Amino acid sequence: MKKLISSAAIAIFVIFLAYNVSCSQDKSDSKNKSDIQSDTIEWTNYDIGLKQAAEDGKYVMAYFWRDG
Q1: What number of helices (H) and strands (E) belong to the chain?
Q2: Is residue 48 assigned to a domain?
Q3: Quick one: pLDDT at residue 55?
Q4: 35 found inside a domain
Q5: What are the φ and ψ backbone dihedral angles of 41, each rounded to 5 degrees?
Q6: How many domains does the chain have?
Q7: CA 46 to CA 52: how far, in whole Å?
């Protein structure tokens, strides 16, 4: 009886694991390249960024830091 319960628990775990892996692959396949690109930031030079923002009528967020 204990072997049957152990076997059933292992089988359920393997099925759950296989389902989980297939779902995560489906989600990653459904993202197209434009979604991936929209999640990234394209950094630019400070002067070029100010010029582009002025041309586009957008605000600029600048973050400066210094160690020490």
Answers
A1: 3, 0
A2: yes
A3: 95
A4: yes
A5: -110, 130
A6: 1
A7: 10
